[in-house]
Amino acid sequence: MASDLTFVEYVCDQMSAAGTITFRKMFGEYAIYCEGKVVALEHLSSRTFAPGYSTVVSPLTVIRLGHTIVWVFFVACIFAIPLFTASSHFRLAALFTAIVAVEVGVLVLNGMRCPLTGIAARYTDDRRPNFDIYLPEWLARNNKQIFGTIYAIAVLFLLVRWLRVI
């Protein structure tokens, strides 16, 4: 089985904040470099990192981490709406409302499932509510109800305050 170039490019992109990240094909596999030093090897779908780094990173771990980061971003957007509304920054509140609305649209088009859930499902038979994200199981199970309600209240607050100004 050959190395997965797409995965190598993805890892390099994720590591870019650490410095200059490059990769080179070696013996049919890939070595990943940070500032000219080898920090990871991609070999036959097993990922090994240099000492001082994680020893193995599975695709499911990368997906779960990415999914958690995306989740935190959208939760921050939801909480930003009432904060900017309360301080009369209505355009910023509207911007965050629109960002979350796009995410809601993606969920609706995907049968109320995050697209990353389907990708993560390829790598495990686990189907607990949090198999694809680093959240407590109870929060993953009730995520849409909790944050959907907060979002609806935040948007209602924005509309009421905005209409009072107009």
Structure, described:
By secondary structure, the protein is an alpha+beta fold. It has 2 domains: 5-49, no CATH class; 59-165. The protein has helices spanning 5-15, 59-86, 90-109, 115-121, 137-165, and strands at 21-26, 29-34, 37-43, 46-49. Strand 2 and strand 3 form a beta hairpin. Helix 2 (59-86) runs antiparallel to helix 4 (115-121), helix 2 runs parallel beside helix 5 (137-165) and helix 3 packs across helix 5. The chain is elongated, with a radius of gyration of 20 Å. The model has no long low-confidence stretch (mean pLDDT 86).
What tags apply to this protein structure?
166 residues; alpha+beta; 2 domains
